[in-house]
Amino acid sequence: MKRIISNIIFATVIAFGLVSCTKTDKNLEAIAGEWHWQGTEGGVEIDIWIGFNEDGTFELYQQIPGLADDDQGRYRRYDGTFTFDGTLLNGRYSDGTYWKHSYSVTVSGDSLKMDYVGEDYSLTYEKKAIPFHVRKYSTAPLKSMTEEPVPFL
Q: Which CB contacts under 8 angstroms, 24+ apart, belong to 120-129?
């Protein structure tokens, strides 16, 4: 009898463990995926790719030609973690530096609109896979906010 009760308790613990491992945050699912924005800011062409993962991590690739003479034309890679409560998006780079802004986010189909909180400014990203060449040939910055160009987020 003791063995049967032990087996039932063990099976229950395993079942709860499996259920909790497969549970994902619905808020993170809403923005999970890879996104692209390209445009001009202050007369400079900028190309940004960002991947939000369901585990709360991100990878950001940005290309700002002309601002980095040593690797002109290559993408800078940044990564870190983010939180998203269904509306508000915040993040922190892997070096511990927080993003410059918080964002109010709206997802509609293949569009991700990021409104800067406290400012009248927004960018709309299109859902697209980050190209192989962007990942493969990107360079890593020394530190997220001390090296030019600084990350866009």
A: 123/37, 123/39, 124/37, 125/35, 125/36, 125/37, 125/48, 125/50, 126/35, 126/36, 126/37, 127/33, 127/34, 127/35, 127/36, 128/34, 128/35, 128/36, 128/49, 129/34
Write the pLDDT tens digit of every residue in 68-112: 545 567 888 999 999 999 999 999 999 999 999 999 999 999 999
CA dist., res. 44 & res. 77, Å (int): 19
Helix (H) or strand (E) holding 134: helix 132-136
pTM of the predicted model as reported, rounded to 2 decimal places: 0.75
Q: Are 101 and 85 in contact (CB under 8 A)?
A: no
Write down the pLDDT at residue 52. Answer: 97
- Residue corresponding to tokens 């890593």: 140
Which residues face 98 on adjacent strands? 92
Q: Measured between alpha carbons, how far is 47 from 89 in angstroms, rounded to an integer?
A: 21
The C-alpha atoms of residue 37 and residue 112 are separated, in whole angstroms, by 10
In angstroms, rounded to a whole number, what is the distance separating the alpha carbons of residues 138 and 74? 6
